Amino acid sequence: MTKAIPQIQRYMTSSPITVNADQTLHYAKELMREHKIRHLPVLVHNELVGIISERDINFIQNFKGVVLETETIRSAMTSELYTVEADAHLDEVCQVMAANKWGSVLVQDNKKLVGIFTWIDALNAMGNLMSTRLK
Predict the structure, then answer these.
(1) In 10 A of CB 102, how many CB atoms?
(2) Long-range CB contacts (< 8 A, 24+ apart) of 18-23?
(3) pLDDT digits (tens, 9 = 90+) for 75-115
(4) Is the separation of the CB atoms in 122 and 13 below 8 Å?
(5) Which of 17, 61, 105, 129 has its CA 20 to 30 A from that of 117?
(6) Residue 64, pLDDT above cutoff 90
(7) What is the pTM of this model?
(8) What is residue 134's predicted lDDT score, i.e. its pLDDT?
């Protein structure tokens, strides 16, 4: 008998830390450092509009004239998002992430942000599945 493939909600980080598009890149960078994370969903009026990564901030700060203390998150965020529903299957999400080399996926339930699934979450899922299902 085979076991069902788990849903993404089992391994995602629930209630992710978020930022507003009009906050500064410095604020986002400090928030990431403080919480030891690399991705922040971006909201405007509680609506998901983008994602900002540590890599995005590091990239933009190399441009001449960019000051992290005054530049807004909106200027560096990615607005083309890969979102999935909380009941999406873990294998499908991981395959899409790997094929596109994406570091995170935003998880929604009825268009409301409920979680984030990162490659760290994927590694934790793999470790859990290997230790519980393959023994």
Answers:
(1) 17
(2) 18/42, 18/43, 18/113, 19/43, 19/52, 19/73, 20/44, 20/73, 21/49, 21/50, 21/72, 21/73, 21/74, 21/77, 22/72, 22/73, 22/74, 23/72, 23/73
(3) 999 999 999 999 999 999 999 999 999 999 999 998 899 99
(4) no
(5) 61
(6) no
(7) 0.90
(8) 67
